[in-house]
Amino acid sequence: MSSMTHRERVMTALNHEEPDRVPCDLGQGLASGINTKAYARLVEHLGLGDEGRAAEIDDRNQIAMPSEAVLQRFDVDVRGVYIGRPVTELTQNSYRDEWGVFWTRPESGGHFIFQEGPFQKKEPTLAELEKYPWPEPRLPHRIEGLKERAKQLHEETDYAVFLRLPYGIVWDCQRVRGFGQWLEDLVVNPVLAEALMDYSAMVNVGITEYALEEVGEYVDIVGFPDDLGFQDRPFMRPEVYRKMVKPYHGRVVDAIKRNTDANVLMHNDGAIYPMIQDYIDIGVEVLNPVQVSAANMDSRRLKEEFGKDLSFWGAIDTGEVLPLGTPEDVRAEVKTRIDDLGPSGGYVLASVHNIQAEITAENIVAMFDSGKEYGRY
Questions:
Q1: Nearest to 26 by CA among 375, 362, 349
Q2: Which end of the chain is more exposed for a tag (fewer CB within 10 A), N or C?
Q3: Is the preceding peptide bond at 66 cis, omega within 30 degrees of 0?
Q4: Hey, how many other C-beta atoms are within 10 angstroms of the C-beta on 261?
Q5: What DSSP element (H or E) covers 223?
Q6: pTM assigned to the model
Q7: Cα(80)–Cα(25) distance, rounded to whole angstroms?
Q8: Residue 271 DSSP label
Q9: Which residues contact 97 (CB under 8 A, 6 or more apart)?
Q10: CA distance 320 to 41
Q11: Averages of pLDDT over each 10 residues, the chain, 377 residues
Q12: Which residues fall within 8 angstroms of residue 147, CB to CB, at 6 or more apart?
């Protein structure tokens, strides 16, 4: 097959057809980024100097947005656009987000961690929830510059354009209520759990519609995040998910599909195998990050069982292979995932979640270069 444009390559793969090679992503989709320390070493290793300077730094998550020079070095097929998440800075090491959740990090710096939500350590009434100042979806600064950036990428480049939505139903509820408390609510106080999901869905659907009214015609993939898996099992029994949570994820997917023809990607970590068919049922077309080290997340099994309906984005192990392996180990990992997930298309190569600080430049280079080598159809 003759060489394709980057957009053609991605969309062919997501259409379950074989492009000229497996497409790849670094820092453009959801949770495919790179830690600032790992990025600095990578730029030095590549000898890019000022050309490699990060296009942007997400200080709260210690993630670097790769420069165009780095993206072109690895022939990354995707370019991302994203929606703002306003916060109120309290100190250099603390802030409060628009949901009212308090976040801190150590005095020495690093990653912010959420500490307390507005409904933790109490039992809020429905009346209190109704009075609470939930985030306003249609804030102009959320989408400032979004249309211009998406349109420019769509019309003046050949890259696939990825819109990243900022929030997720389970994420939101666990942050405002507390990780464990909300999971308990699903069983012991389902009225409260569903009320919180109603407000989360109101915000998420509103933001989705607002953004896609601006850029729906210019984007190729729309990704929304959530996490429902531990390393060894889902957060909840599949029957609880189907009865209580699945309808709210369905609302978000419906909002995407009503406003764009783009592919719908769901970011969902961990051991989520028992619910994958449910995601397909509500219209999810691409699964990320494909945490292959988690229970029942074998890449060959996933492709065999779900590959006709679902594409896979990620799958290069960040738990052991990338941080602990040699470049040859990384090359073997890449070959395995391409062999498992690449036949008949349906695979975009990326790391399982963000590349962390300890991962060497040599292993990052090995991942992308071997992707080009083994990913030819």
A1: 349
A2: N
A3: no
A4: 10
A5: strand 221-225
A6: 0.97
A7: 10
A8: S
A9: 85, 86, 87, 88, 103, 175
A10: 19
A11: 87 98 97 96 97 92 96 98 94 96 93 94 95 97 96 98 97 96 96 98 98 98 97 97 98 98 98 98 98 98 98 97 98 98 98 96 98 97
A12: 214, 215, 218
Burial zone of 50 (CB within 10 Å; 0-12 exposed, 13-18 middle, 19+ buried) = exposed
Residue pair 312/287 in contact (Cβ under 8 Å)? The answer is yes
* Single-letter amino acid, residue 361: A
Q: What is the DSSP letter of 310?
A: -
d(CA 288, CA 303): 13
CA distances, 105 to each of 120, 122, 177 (Å): 19, 24, 20
The two tokens of residue 318 are 């960040």
- Burial class of 147 by CB neighbour count within 10 A (0 to 12, 13 to 18, 19+): middle
Which long-range contacts link 238-243 to residues 24+ away (Cβ below 8 Å)? Answer: 238/274, 238/275, 238/278, 240/186, 240/187, 241/275, 241/278, 242/275, 242/278
Instruction: Return the pLDDT at 110.
Output: 85
Spell out the domains of the chain, with CATH numbers in brackets. Answer: 6-28+76-86+123-374 (3.20.20.210)
Q: What are phi and psi of 249, to 5 degrees?
A: -60, -35
Q: Where are the alpha helices (DSSP H) in the chain?
A: 6-14, 36-46, 68-73, 126-131, 146-156, 169-177, 179-188, 190-215, 238-240, 246-259, 276-282, 299-306, 321-324, 327-341, 361-374
Q: In 3D, which of 132, 212, 214 has the Cα closest to residue 176?
A: 132
Residue type, 145: G
Rounded Cα distance, 299 and 290, in Å: 8
